Amino acid sequence: MNQAMGRAPVLGSALALVLVVSLAATGCTTVEGTWTSADPPSPSSSRSQTPDAEAPAEPAVRLDVTRHRGGPRAIAASTAPAADHGATLLSEGARTRLWWCGRKSGTKKARDVILHASARDLDGRFTTVRGTKRGAKPRTVLSGGKNGFDAAHTCDPSVIKVDGVYYLYYTGTTGKPGAGNAIGVAKSKNGLRWRRIGGGAPIVRPARPKRDGYGAGRPAVVHLDGWFYLLFTDSTASRGANAGQFLLRSRDPAFRKRVQSLGERGFHPVNGTGAARTRSLADAADADLMWVDLLDAFVVAHRSGTGTTLTFWDRGFSGHPYRRLTVRGVGRDGPGLVRAPAGHAPRSERDPCGTVPVDLVRAARGTPKRTGLRHVGVDVVGARGCATHADALRLLDGYAFPSPEHTMDLITDGELIRVERRSVATILASDGTLGRRPSLPDLNVAARLNSAAPVLRSRDGQTGLLLDDGRLWPLRTPALAKRIARRNESPMRTVGDIAWGAYPVASPLG
Questions:
Q1: How many Å from the N-terminal Cα to the C-terminal Cα in the chain?
Q2: Architecture of 64-381 per CATH?
Q3: Phi first, then psi: what are they for 408, rounded to 5°?
Q4: Where are the domains of the chain?
Q5: What is the pTM of this model?
Q6: Which residues contact 38 (CB under 8 A, 6 or more apart)?
Q7: Which end of the chain is more exposed for a tag (fewer CB within 10 A), N or C?
């Protein structure tokens, strides 16, 4: 966003030789982890870094990148494409939604606003309509408030979806000289019409508001185990050459209560979001954050001299379970990762037990067709998921794939259902698509959804499928029940309260 914005000193030559060999084999450890790319970090990316107090142990699993994708053509651009930057993306079913920062046209003063578009293919053209019309203008979904902290500019969106509600975290500023940036949040039912939370007041301000500099902004948010994790820049708290990345978490999406800050010894309760910022996760001006279920780890992505650096952190941000990787590709801003609605990594349909798809969008300048936002991506391979029953059932929740019986398997809430009809399995899959059968341990079939399995309806409108195990599997909506009945050729019948209550109840479907 623009700135409106003591041991003995001699141990012997043999030991010295061992140390040299050891250092050459393991590489150099910094606050961000161990560099394992073929390219060493550039001087600018390693400046002002200091060694860890305790270097993490050598990771047991070594990851690699393959299947590079993306290209030089812009996938999205506004009427002022040279100003486009700050992307955030959600993968929702068959479409990917994109929000980013651009310039509002038709005004005397240049103002940053937040735009929206979507597409079926990451390398296709993002538009505001469900089609392939090229050049369709993006939709402005959030602009400056009347008198608030964001009166002049709204930018750097980070969008997640939790329990059916979209939350948009963003950078705002008044545009007045000396006014530092701050972070706000808005919510929406559809990701298009937004309402500011807390009357439009910022949820994070700069640590030293009177200090010259960028301020606080460029948020990145993930929802995990009931916590909202907020990674952000604060140039006024940084001691190095770059801005630094700080982390807060709260169970409240507006960060008004139960706030914790990441310090040198992990998370600790603090009195509000203005607590002292003592630990930075990356020496970078901006970054994005994502949780990877397959790796049981967070990944922080930020730009480096050769592209985008991926640094992996365990749940408590106390160490690096995997070595750093690099996604090659030029860009003039930080990366916007393609994420599932809660800010988690999308599941690979090619190999859900061993591959993590990492796709990102960055701004780039060039010729008219290459100015705007560009996509690059890789598959991160080498993970060892689904090795146990528990891991397989956890990682594949909501996943539908071919069974050994030429039917379909659906994993839901820790159980496997064998579904006779492909079309029904597609409806019940979490993302509406069918994937390949992964390499799995033997899993017991909990129930079978055969053709014509009855759909039951209670007198108060609840619906469910009666499967061959004798349990009633609730369906989340009446509309879903009608679709299942039609596709599965299932009879629908209403039952009384006593009969309805007599069935053992399984997990909800859909």
A1: 40
A2: 5 Propeller (2.115)
A3: -125, 150
A4: 64-381, 389-502
A5: 0.83
A6: none
A7: C
